[in-house]
Amino acid sequence: xxxxxxxxxxxxxxxxxxxxxxxxxxxxxxxxxxxxxxxxxxxxxxxxxxxxxxxxxxxxxxxxxxxxxxxxxxxxxxxxxxxxxxxxxxxxxxxxxxxxxxxxxxxxxxxxxxxxxxxxxxxxxxxxxxxxxxxxxxxxxxxxxxxxxxxxxxxxxxxxxxxxxxxxxxxxxxxxxxxxxxx
Length: 183
Hints:
Elements: H1 6-36, E1 52-54, E2 60-62, E3 70-76, H2 81-98, E4 102-108, H3 114-123, E5 130-132, E6 148-152, E7 158-163, H4 168-180
Parallel strand pairs: 3-4, 4-5
Antiparallel strand pairs: 1-2, 3-6, 6-7
C-alpha cells in the first residue's frame, strides 16, 4: 500500500478550507443583500387599517392618532423565547428613537391577560405603551408566528414587516430611513 505524502494532505486541507470559506462568504453576502432589501418603496406600501387598543395603564392607543409619526409595533408573547431575547434591544432602540418622533406599541398576544404581561413589561423596563390584543381589528390578525415587528411610515402605510427577531442594526437603519422621508 502506498502512503499519501503529507504535503498532499496539507494541500487538500487548504483547498477544502478555501472552498468552504468562499461558500460562507457567498452565503453571508446573499444574506446581507436580502437583509439590505429593506423598506418597501413608498409607492408599493399599503395603508394599515386603523385600530385602537387599551394599554396596560388604561389609556387608548390608536394608529390614527399617530398619523404623521413613524410607528413601530412589536407583536410578542411573554412565553416566547425569541420575544424575550429581542426585547432588551428593542427597549433600547425605542428609548432612543422615541425622542426622535417614533411612536411605539408592544402588543401582546398572550392569553393570560394583564396579570401575565405586567410583570414581563416591568422586567424588561418597557417604558413605551404595552397593550393586549383585543377583540377588535388588530395588526396581530393573521399573524402565525412571533415575534413580528411592523414599521409604519408617517402616512400610515406598512413600510416593513420583520418576522422573527430583528437586529438592532437593521431596525435602526430602517427607522433612520423612514425618519428622513418626507410625509
